[in-house]
Amino acid sequence: MGVGKRAPQIQPNFLPSRAGGPPSPPASSHAHSGSPFNTKGLQPEVLQKLPPPESEKDIPSHDLETVTDLPLITLITTYISYAILLIYGHLRDFFGKIFKSEEFKPYFHTNGIAPIINGFDSLYHRRLYIRIRDVFNRPITGVAGRTVKLLDRVSGDFNRTFKLTGTTTEVLNLASYNYLGFAAGEGPVVDQVEAGIREHGLVNNSSRAEAGNSSLLEEAERVTARFVGTASAMIISQGFATNSTTIPAVASKGCLILSDEMNHSSIVTGARLSGANIRVFKHNNIPQLEEMLREAISQGQPRTHRPWKKIFVVIEGLYSMEGSFPLLTQILELKKAYKFYIYLDEAHSIGALGPRGRGICDYYGIDPKEIDIMMGTFTKSFGAAGGYIAGRPELIQHLKFTNFNQIYGEPISVPVLQQIVGSMKVIMGEDGTTDGQRRLEQLAFNARYFSTELRKMGFMVCSHPDSPVVPVMLFHPAKIPAFSRECLAKGIAVVVVGYPATPVLTSRVRFCLSASHSKEDLDFALKAINEIGDRLLLKNLW
């Protein structure tokens, strides 16, 4: 993994191949919970690494409120660290305005024109973020698959600007949402993409409502509906826009949206654009959700007390920052009692969970038809782009005339559509191979093995044991860049996250696992992470 050197390809050799097709989902969530794949026939060295199955009622809420149980010294030093950074930032601004006034011109009124950027609002970026800017937005080249090749860069002005050195470094990729390993530059699906370009071209240069409704797009929607398990589906060209344009198309003034506090910003944006009344419940807090439902139904709309036109409960299938799952079976029980609509965002769970890769419903053994609106994206498990909405035919037909992206936006390009069709058919086994099932089993093993080993080492891991997203808590702001830099020095690419993307106390590193990773890859990473954890005092913080 040196400069400009390609890392050797290590092929998985610890999971047996299957002769048959994908297994059927279990009859109940209890039979399937805690185990996204059948462990029968696995080698003993694999089985002994897997923790015992859990029932859904034993799954922790993953609301991160347990940080209050940390030693007082950790809490105090974390707050003090942020306080010192802010104080020094304000002091530098104060003296900078006096001695380096030219640098602060963009933040002052000039010729009666208000500054487009507020000086106080940009303080965090200028005085805190810029100190650790080298660990973000690292440029890459080539395919971001099992490994990723970074363009080396240096800064001579404390991260204000960077200069490429002309060299590259190939590192193990634990940063990309390449769950099933379809981000590749070669293979049968890539061959299909090339053939699709020759047949259909690149783009249609028109919105779907005009001349952009191609036969390939309609085929991709049929394959998506079959994959998800619904009667119909609609593809949207951008993942963020799938939520932000669909929610306003189904909810409006007089409707109520109950949203999990950990929901993605695209959901928040869509809810605000809809004009509906929004209320937020604590992450996976079912008693609070039920209390809010009872109050909403009994009291009705504010001031008028008229009944709500519609009530939506909006959740995610896999929360990408926490690595937690929704308590879906309990929410479905509430739905039977209180008669609301469920909007399920499966951006990260589709393809990554369940014995057939069909997402959180597949994981729990739930019929997807019990979910009113199913949303997902193709950017994670399928190596593509865009998103989809799946549900009843009348819902999809309504959205095709009311979703702004369908009316004004251009459809997904031909290569991406072909990638969607090809990857889904591989997962469903329609390509005549067991490659899709092998990928699902590999990812399931990697998720359970990696998070279990980190817990054994003493790291604070707050994700579900079967989540392919594994966050480890860092807490101190100084440990955010330190962890990333140490990992890079050991040949590993990771994502670190801190305030304001997370609460002040809960900065973390987020490992993203892939079916393209072998056990040898994970052991290599675990050894390095173990050493870094000792150096940065990240273990046994409970």
Mind telling me the C-alpha Rg? 24 Å
- CATH architecture grouping of the largest domain: 3-Layer(aba) Sandwich
> How much of the sequence is in beta strands?
5-15%
Distance between the termini: 35 Å
User: What profile does the largest beta sheet have?
Assistant: 7 strands, mixed
Q: What is the overall number of helices?
A: 17
CATH H level, superfamily name of the largest domain: Type I PLP-dependent aspartate aminotransferase-like (Major domain)
Structural class: alpha/beta
The total domain count is 3
Mean pLDDT: 86
CA-based shape: globular
Could you name the CATH topology of the largest domain?
Answer: Aspartate Aminotransferase, domain 2
Q: State the strand order across the main sheet.
A: 4-10-9-8-7-5-6
Number of strands: 14
Helix content: 25-40%
Regarding CATH, which class of the largest domain? Alpha Beta
Which stretches are low in confidence, meaning pLDDT under 50 for 5 or more residues running?
A: 1-63
Organism: Conidiobolus coronatus (strain ATCC 28846 / CBS 209.66 / NRRL 28638) (Delacroixia coronata)
Biased composition (Low complexity): 16-36
Keywords: Pyridoxal phosphate, Transferase
Cofactor: pyridoxal 5'-phosphate
Write up this protein.
By secondary structure, the chain is α/β, with parallel strands linked by helices. The chain folds into three domains: 78-132, no CATH class; 137-181 and 434-536, Aspartate Aminotransferase, domain 1, CATH 3.90.1150.10; 188-428, 3-Layer(aba) Sandwich (Aspartate Aminotransferase, domain 2), CATH 3.40.640. Helices cover 37% and strands 13% of the residues. It is built from 17 helices and 14 strands. The strands form three sheets. The chain has a seven-stranded mixed beta sheet with strand order 4-10-9-8-7-5-6, sandwiched between helices. Helix 10 links the parallel strand 7 and strand 8 (341-345). Helix 5 runs antiparallel to helix 14 (414-427), helix 7 packs parallel to helix 8 (265-274) and helix 14 (414-427) crosses helix 15 (435-457). The longest helix is centred in the N-terminal third of the chain and has 28 residues, at 72-99. The two termini are 35 Å apart. The model is unreliable at 1-63 (pLDDT under 50).
